[in-house]
């Protein structure tokens, strides 16, 4: 039976303003339900006269990069489909912003192939990196890795590299590919040639979404966004934990999470519900030579699945991961409009910390959360990937959900009704700037303002 903790659990009628409660930091996130807007945050959004990005009064944005413009390196145009992202400190106050491009073979703006940085010349995904000076101005923009497939999200490593994930497990010979896909790659933003384009095969070949690394142990947690069947939540136990750039190539063991008695996380609808004694089951064949990793035999007890496992973030002593939505008509055990889960390795316990809904229409606050990150002061930032107008939502430490940004680029454009999602939200190392991507048209914004107020 689950261990149920109901600290500050709110009524789920949609009438309350509060939705999530914090106690000091993300690692102490209370359990609650996201149902309506609160009064927290930075005030109402102000319509942008330029028609790009609405922000609260006192905040401003700069466009750092847009798809189709020339890369400053001269390697070609800026690729499209801007997705996951991370920011790293460099010398002399510089920041390296590493950005994914979730391109498949049909996309018209591929990541340009660069010698020494290209894995599969037939694949069009990868990463670019923007080098910013201490004032936030772009000094350079270049390819960081190319020839990968459908680079969706990923996560930063404790030693300052980006782990980019392929959400495509196609074999060589499929889609014209010359190599197998479905891997994680390490990217050094300061000098991409130091990391190259070599897959971290031991971390598994599947439809990767995001990763989060425990900075104490080096264990890497991985989400899988897949169907037929739904994906799993994994952990990778490296042979050389915290060994620095390249150490993950030494190999390790991949395991999948089993929550006894819970075959589908969507069946859990009560926020604050916890399950102790989480089990980790070795993956029989991490390379999926004959059978996809999620379809392999995990014994008579089975394995725990979830629909749309996406964003992941390490906070405090826990890893947080997102299920963007679940639909019974698509095979899930129950419907929801977004879950955030917390796994505590020290206690082997997983807890549903927030569930979004009920649905109130296409502009439901926080519908379909995707990428997440921790903001200065302990607020949680969520990128919305749903229908209608798309937002970055904040969740205050008092448990109130508020609009932080709204994408204006796709409003009133029926040809792009759902592709204006936000992605890759992250803060600069000094906490003064929020960087965020609009997926399509691919745009990278830098947002400054009174964050610490």
TrEMBL record:
Keyword Signal: yes
Species of provenance: Streptomyces qinzhouensis
Keywords: Signal
Protein's name in the database: DUF839 domain-containing protein
One Pfam family this sequence matches: PhoX
InterPro entries: PhoX, TAT_signal
Signal peptide location: 1-23
């Amino acid at each position: 039976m689950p261990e149920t903790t109901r600290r500050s659990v709110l009524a789920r009628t949609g009438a309350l303003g509060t939705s999530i409660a914090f106690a000091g930091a993300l690692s102490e996130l209370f359990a609650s339900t996201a149902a309506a807007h609160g009064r927290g945050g930075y005030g109402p959004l102000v319509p942008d006269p330029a028609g790009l990005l609405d922000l609260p009064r006192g905040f401003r944005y700069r466009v750092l990069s847009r798809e189709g413009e020339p890369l400053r390196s001269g390697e070609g145009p800026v690729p499209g489909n801007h997705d996951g992202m991370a920011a790293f400190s460099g010398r002399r106050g510089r920041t390296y912003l590493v950005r994914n491009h979730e391109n498949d073979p049909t996309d018209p703006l591929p990541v340009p192939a660069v010698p020494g940085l290209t894995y599969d010349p037939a694949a069009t995904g990868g990463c670019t990196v923007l080098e910013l000076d201490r004032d936030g101005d772009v000094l350079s923009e270049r390819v960081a890795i190319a020839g990968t497939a459908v680079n969706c999200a990923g996560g930063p490593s404790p030693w300052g590299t980006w782990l980019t994930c392929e959400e495509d497990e196609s074999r060589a010979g499929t889609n014209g590919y010359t190599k197998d896909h479905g891997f994680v790659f390490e990217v050094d933003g300061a000098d991409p040639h130091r990391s190259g384009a070599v897959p971290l095969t031991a971390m598994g070949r599947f439809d990767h979404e995001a990763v989060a690394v425990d900075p104490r142990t080096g264990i890497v947690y991985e989400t899988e966004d897949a169907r037929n069947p739904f994906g799993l939540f994994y952990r990778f136990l490296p042979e050389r934990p915290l060994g620095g750039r390249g150490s993950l190539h030494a190999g390790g063991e991949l395991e999948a999470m089993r929550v006894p008695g819970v075959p589908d996380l969507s069946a859990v609808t009560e926020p604050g519900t916890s399950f102790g004694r989480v089990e980790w089951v070795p993956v029989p064949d991490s390379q999926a030579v004959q059978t996809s990793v999620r379809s392999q035999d995990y014994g008579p007890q089975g394995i725990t699945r979830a629909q749309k496992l996406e964003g992941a973030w390490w906070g405090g002593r826990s890893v947080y991961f997102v299920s963007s939505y679940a639909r019974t008509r698509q095979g899930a055990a129950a419907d929801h409009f977004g879950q955030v889960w917390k796994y505590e390795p020290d206690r082997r316990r997983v807890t549903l910390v927030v569930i979004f809904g009920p649905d109130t229409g296409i502009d439901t606050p926080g519908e379909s959360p995707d990428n997440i990150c921790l903001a200065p002061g302990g607020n949680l930032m969520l990128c919305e990937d749903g229908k209608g107008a798309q937002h970055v939502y904040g969740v205050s430490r008092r448990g109130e959900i508020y609009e932080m940004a709204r994408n204006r680029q796709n409003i009133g454009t029926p040809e792009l009704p759902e592709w204006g999602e936000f992605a890759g939200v992250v803060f600069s190392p000094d906490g003064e700037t929020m960087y965020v991507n609009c997926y399509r048209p691919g745009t990278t914004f830098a947002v400054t303002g009174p964050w610490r107020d």
